[in-house]
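Sequence only, no structure available. Ideas?
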Amino acid sequence: TLIKGLLRQLRARLTTRHERGVTMVVTVPQARFSSSSSLAAAHASAAPSAASKGAPLPPDEEARIAALDASNILDTAPEEMFDDIARLASHLCGTPIALVSFVDRGRQWFKSAVGLSVSETSRDVAFCAHAILEPWHTLEVTDSHVDPRFRDNPLVNGDPHVRFYAGAPIVSESGHALGTVCVIDHVPRAL
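Reply:
I predicted one. Tokens follow.
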């Protein structure tokens, strides 16, 4: 319920962002969340990335990257609006880390970060690369130590010690998941 309220507020803010030529929409997910185990079928049917050991590439990867490139958001300066979104996500969900991330070809880049000092990670270890596989659903990983996709991930076993993750895809008007608004905690939990 908290994430749904947050996403409604994010949708209102992001749909007004037209100056980059692409209007981004944070989707309000269906009532169900994708749990740690429910994405197995989606992962099995998607084409794996030859360059990574992480999430497979979405079936619309070429068009998704084109939409991301057209947004001209990658590697831009911090903006108060995105920082507000990350702070609000952290506050509403009670997590020490919140991000507005965009999943590029080989990396996950953070437009805004609360509680994390890095500006990007490799895509092959990015939880958000899994979240964009289902653009209309929130991915919730309640305990990364028991999820086979993440238990050996260096972000789980080293800094920042991700134990809980919830990510809601940021979806372009054309329906491509460009990244996520996500929250992270160091302990197992659920929203």
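The helical segments are 2-14, 40-45, 61-71, 80-93, 127-131, 154-157.
Hope that gets you unstuck.
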